Amino acid sequence: MTDWTPAEMPDLEGKTVVVTGANSGLGFEGTRAFASRGATVVMACRSVERGERAVREIRADSGGEVDGDLDVRECDLASLDSVEAFAEGVRGAYDAVDVLCNNAGVMAVPRSETADGFETQFGVNHLGHFALTGRLFDLLSTADGVRGTSRVVTQSSGAHEQGEMDFSDLNWEESYGKWRAYGRSKLANLLFAYELQRRIETAESTGEDLGVRSVACHPGYADTNLQLRTARESGNPLWKVGMRVANALFGQDAAVGAEPMLYAVTADVGGGAYVEPGGFLNMRGHPTVGRSNDASYDRVDARRLWEYSVEATGVTFPFGERDGS
Predict the structure, then answer these.
(1) Catalytic: which of 182, 194, 221, 263?
(2) Catalytic residue check, 182
(3) Which pTM does this prediction carry?
């Protein structure tokens, strides 16, 4: 475990950072930290009202002094049309994006479908972010980036270790288990993050200068409203009590849980890195570079997922569809 803290983040003045799910939990803490270093943070929020409330809280906590600009924009990752509209709005307002934090997510909810007919956890956690990354990639490639390289940072979870890819039923139409579905969506996050890095490296090996790095992270056990939302949607009052007790006993503060994301954005880490807490069972502590499970590095599954995601979302990446073989 390192002893790195956000106090070591560099100056981000002049940088533009897009954070999904910026109004609460890890996204809120990340937004606060980026703005404190002078970055312009584009807050991609499903609810603009909650996003604006978060801005007021950040400004109040800082005594009204926030070095960076905070730009709240609607983005519902459960709707590919909303993702496209958000990306077009960003493209119209900004010439470049230095960092994209694919942070937002839903966890262990009862089966439902996105506006486009995908199982919600897979659709929001993976497909929505896949589409957003593709639609913003040229702005990332245009930017100077952090430490000279733009970054796509994708938030996963230790739950990826319970995930299994089943390409015959990616949307859980045959059977559904909310925790198994969550694990698969978090495994998909990692397969995407690593395959994106491989495809970037393949393109750059042929002379394309993309200047983008893909990094994955996970927060450990962070005390956020993600667990409480899961408990509420379970409809079981005992589950709510259990989640509150678990958060109190095992969870670390959301600000500490956001550190792996902050480290992945600002520290000198290589493309394809996996940043996680370095303490007890990788659930707590300051960030370090670790390794996710073997399934997350399966190149065959990564290629299949990429091909499915292109077909499902209709989004391609501007450097072509050469895989990372």
Answers:
(1) 182
(2) yes
(3) 0.91
